[in-house]
Prior knowledge:
Blueprint: H1 2-7, H2 12-19, E1 58-65, H3 68-84, E2 88-95, H4 100-109, E3 116-119, H5 124-129, E4 152-155, E5 158-163, E6 167-174, H6 175-181, H7 196-205, E7 208-209, E8 225-231, H8 236-245, H9 263-277, H10 292-295, E9 302-308, H11 311-321, E10 326-329, E11 339-342, E12 345-348, H12 355-365, H13 372-377, H14 386-389, H15 391-398, H16 406-417, E13 422-424, H17 433-443, H18 445-448, H19 454-460, H20 462-469
Helix pairs in contact: 8-9, 17-20
Amino acid sequence: MKAxxxxxxxxxxxxxxxxxxxxxxxxxxxxxxxxxxxASNSPEKSPEKSPEKSTEKVKITYSMWGSxxxxxxxxxxxxxxxxxQDKIEVEVQAIPYENYMTKLNTLATASQLPDxxxxxxxxxxxxxxxxxxxxxxxxxxxSDSKPLDSLAYKYQGKTVAYASANEILLLYYNKDxxxxxxxxxxxxxLDKAWTWDEFVATAKKLTNDKxxxxxxxxxxxxxxxxxxxxxxxxxxxQLEAWTLSNGGGxxxxxxxEVRIGEDASTEAIQKVADLxxxxxxxxxxxxxTDDGIQRTIIAGTVAMATNGAWNVGTSLNAWKDAGNHYxxxxxxxxxxxxxxxxxxxxxxxxxxxxxxxxxEWLKWYNQEENNWGLISSGIWMPTLDKWYKxxxxxxxxxDNPNFPPYEEYKSAVVDYARSSAARPASWFFTNHTTDxxxxxxxTLGDVWTGKTTAKDAITKNLEALKAANKGEx
Length: 473
């Protein structure tokens, strides 16, 4: 999606912008606006308007990045909330993406911040550390369902935001390529997940040069590959999953110490690079563009590729409708089974005089029924745990022609997302991730082409990476 590249952290926040403002027609074109998130797409009835009362409603503002038209569409969603009760009136404030954080900083300086709004994933902890966000720890007390624990942004033990949508990293694969090669599909059940070595061995069977030779066979020509077996997305933030899987990580559990220099972390990154450099099962990728599924599965050049769950809705539905066949599976693992959760944040700013009312709006706004177009299309996944635990809700979500078969998607996505393998991406608890990821991305540039090793590159820049984690330039 268009905003994803600007964020540099994935597609989630972009989906949040477009999802609640689209036309609700399940448009699945790549880089297009997402389907409507309005309640009119909900499988349940819209709330009835409460009787008129003489008491004046508390007025709160909700900020979002987007055009005036997108803001108008989001206001239509807010109007459904406004009509559902007689205590709160929500006004949507749309700010162009390019000016969004600048505008918020200006409003903060003038003590004129909105009551609540959207926040970039990589800005939540920084704003919280500066006292700009309210504690939302009690927001779901008394509710029959709350967001998955892995979707809470936490600072000093307090929940300061919840993701507006859930996303996890998956393994996608081209079923036709597997069938042609006579190779069993990747496992969709976590207990049967492939080891890294099994993943590489399978990728070799699916990698062909122009003579039909595979890596390791006599006569194989790595310069004339016509089909690759695998691609592991190496955008910086997604690499964290592999460092964690190998027993390392980017940071300590509280986000205050850098672990990227540990052998387990550098080894994991090198294994990803070696898919191209040594194993000859993956195309060259330099970690710069957020269009991995389009460049691999959809392009018809790669048999399996890792990336986020949002790709079902943003690109794979249209590809499937054109007569192609894909599946979803759990990620392979090195030592520990790991996938990452992520999702753009909704916050309540500390300058508000109405924190309770702001939280009431966010709780309503974040209900799946009010963003059903995004969920039913496969761009978003639900945040509330009832959609993962109660099969009545799961069927309502997953028994859907936009998705792969129910049992496959349920095990590879629904069950996977609430398993012990699902861990929050580091911006859920770590400050200064923008600077850290930017520096790490540039540090790894020569690793992908084989000019240096991951260990040497990271060791050379380790002190600078530690400084970036502390917010030091």
